[in-house]
Amino acid sequence: MEATLELPGLLRLRLDGVAQCYLVRDDDGVTVIDTGTAGHAGPIARWAAEFGPVRRIVLTHHHADHAGSAAALRALTGAPVLAHAADAPVVRGEVEPPPPVLTDEDRPLWEAIAPPPPPAPPCPVDGEVADGDVLPFGGGARVLSTPGHTDGSIALHLPALGVLFTGDALASVGGPLRPGVFNTDRVRLEESVRRLLAVGADLVCVGHGKPVRTGAPR
């Protein structure tokens, strides 16, 4: 595991070769954004303890490399899990996750993932969020609905910190900022990407790859 302090009070945890999560510290404790694959709840909780108690766990979408440790982390910390209403049934294990619609570009990347991440254990969703909601951390975190990667994908914009968390709508693996792969609806994803690029942020924190500093989204 690798930990990087991206800003005062903002820690990025690279949990393995694929998954990562972010910890945002406030005076009253910590918000965890995504939880990586299953098996990382203990390390996330130990790192969070350096900042304070975990107050909430926010999932940008239901994929197993983002929601895999949510149930275990919730059990360890007692923190509520928040997810978009469209992805909440998958997080809870009530429905199967829909497969991505692979493009020609996606297919070799998809086939190269071996083994695939373990399925995410079902996890209660304590609160369903929607576009425009403002969550009480980081000076106010505005929820942006960004469907396309999954139906219920979200981003989080923290204007007070100049930070945008994009989930997998955007990535920076192997080069500049780009739309994410393995999407359920590429057209909707591209609409969501345009919305994110219009937000403007000093630091863009992606689901995969290093955060991108000012100017790169343009």
Helix/strand structural class: alpha/beta
Could you state the oligomeric state of the chains shown?
A: single chain
Main beta sheet, described?
7 strands, mixed
- Proportion of residues in β-strands: 25-35%
Head-to-tail CA distance between termini: 31 Å
Q: Could you spell the SSE succession in H and E letters? A: EEEEHEHHEHHEEEEEEEHEE
Provide keyphrases for this structure.
218 residues, alpha/beta, 7-stranded mixed β-sheet, 6-stranded mixed β-sheet, 6 helices, 20% helix, 28% strand
Structure description:
With about 220 residues, this protein is an alpha/beta fold. About 20% of the residues lie in helices and about 30% in strands. It has 6 helices and 15 strands. It has helices at about 40-50, 65, 70-75, 90, 105-110, 185-195, and strands at about 1-5, 10-15, 20-25, 30-35, 55-60, 80-85, 125-130, 135, 140-145, 155-160, 165, 170, 180, 205, 210-215. The chain has a 7-stranded mixed sheet with strand order 1-2-3-4-5-6-7. A 6-stranded mixed sheet has the order 8-9-10-11-14-15, with no helix packed on it. Strands 12-13 form a two-stranded antiparallel ribbon. The longest helix has 12 residues, at about 185-195. It is globular.
